[in-house]
Amino acid sequence: MLVRFFTAQQELLWLTTLLVDLGCTVILYRLFGKAGLQVAIATAIILANLSGPKLTEIFGLQTSLGVIFYSSIFFATDVLSENYGRAEANKAVRMGFAVSVIVLLMLSISLLYQPTTDPKSAAFSLSIHDSFITIVNYTPRFVFGSLLAYYVSQSFDVWAFHRIKKVTGDRWLWLRNNLSTMSSQAIDTVIYSLVAWWGIVDLQTALALGAAKYILKMGIAAIDTAFIYWARASFRRREAALS
């Protein structure tokens, strides 16, 4: 019954998935501290890479499923920036980039393995192999677009977050969280749409996909504001207990 409900209510499924994704990131943070945020970034990168080619429609907008899982990356980066400083946030960006390279490389290598010819399992093995090719047979432009968009946008996110914090001090966390995310994700969306999609689809469609992604990312940024306040409060309570 639950499957039928969410199949018919895609917008509620999107919101539920987003809340679960952000909630899991906060839980990882509460359980493992800074390392939990680094794990969350690596997990989100793997999920985004695997689900990136899957297109769906949310609120009438065609978008990639990877957008949802990508949301916890800039959320975790902003939490690291707020609680641990610019150096730790930049370190997490570099770690995420390394994870992305490794995932893309190893998945590409895995495609070279041929399915078994054992009569008992050959049909099943071939169907899985073909499905695997469909999901992870990344084109060079997808790899380049994904890596370039991630590294440039996340590096800019950290820079913008701390630039705004210099002006606002400890106040207005919501402002630096949203402004840094809005600007960095505009960069991410433009780079990825032009490099990865333009040529596979026409320019108009590529820009439309990018615009839809950006609108949803802005919604995600607004929703994750409550989570980042929760993460900061959790950090301060932990610090106060240790002091």
From TrEMBL:
Pfam families in the record: Vut_1
Entry's Gene Ontology cellular component terms: plasma membrane
Subcellular localization: Cell inner membrane
InterPro entries: YhhQ
Keyword Lipid metabolism in record: no
Membrane topology: Multi-pass membrane protein
Source taxon at top rank: Bacteria
TM helices/strands, residue ranges: 36-52, 58-80, 92-113, 142-161, 182-200, 206-230
Keyword Coiled coil: no
Alphabetical keyword list: Cell inner membrane, Cell membrane, Membrane, Transmembrane, Transmembrane helix, Transport
MF terms (GO), sorted A to Z: transmembrane transporter activity
Function: Involved in the import of queuosine (Q) precursors, required for Q precursor salvage.
PANTHER family documented for this protein: QUEUOSINE PRECURSOR TRANSPORTER-RELATED
Family indicated by similarity: Belongs to the vitamin uptake transporter (VUT/ECF) (TC 2.A.88) family. Q precursor transporter subfamily.
Name of the molecule in the record: Probable queuosine precursor transporter
